[in-house]
Design a protein that fits this description.
Length: 161
């Protein structure tokens, strides 16, 4: 077992971004001045997009899918990245109400709709287990950013999976 920036796991888990206690690849996390931040993969300029919410930074997105061999890690990684980008967008936009939050979650849901093809190409699909896990992650994001009244179904309303 190794540790990197408060993230524990085997060397392979750390390299794959699957160590315990994070939601981003270990090399993307840093701790400084009591604030946990991480780079969000896929930012438009390739630069640093901070994740300052400690609850989110410590969360391992889509853990159940990583644990099931039916879901290829390389495709699940892309789903995790969608969720991390959603978190970065919530932090950047600071939505003031549920309507503004839903606009952000709907855009991320559309990204998951597009990801369905990658699952199928890898011999998998977004089926019941994946649907529930993804929906729960959207609910987690809403709760982590203070939207206790968010409707779990509305968060992912445009889903096609």
């Amino acid at each position: 077992m190794q540790q990197h920036g408060g993230v524990r796991g085997t060397r392979q888990q750390l390299e794959d971004g699957r160590g315990v206690g994070h939601g981003a690849a270990p090399e993307a996390l840093s701790v400084g001045c009591g604030r946990i931040t991480g780079t969000v993969p896929g930012s438009k300029d390739g630069g640093f997009m901070p994740i300052s919410n400690q609850r989110v930074a410590a969360h391992r997105f889509l853990a159940g899918l990583y644990e099931d061999d039916y879901f290829p890690d390389r495709v699940v990684d892309r789903g995790r990245d969608i969720l991390l980008r959603l978190c970065a967008r919530v932090e950047a936009a600071r939505p003031g109400d549920l309507t503004a939050l839903y606009a952000l979650t709907h855009a991320a849901t559309e990204e998951f709709n597009a990801l369905e093809a990658a699952f199928e190409e890898a011999g998998s699909e977004i089926e019941t287990t994946a649907r529930e896990e993804i929906g729960e992650e959207f609910w987690f994001v809403a709760q982590a950013y203070g939207f206790a009244d968010a409707d779990p179904e509305e968060l992912i309303a445009p889903r096609e999976w």
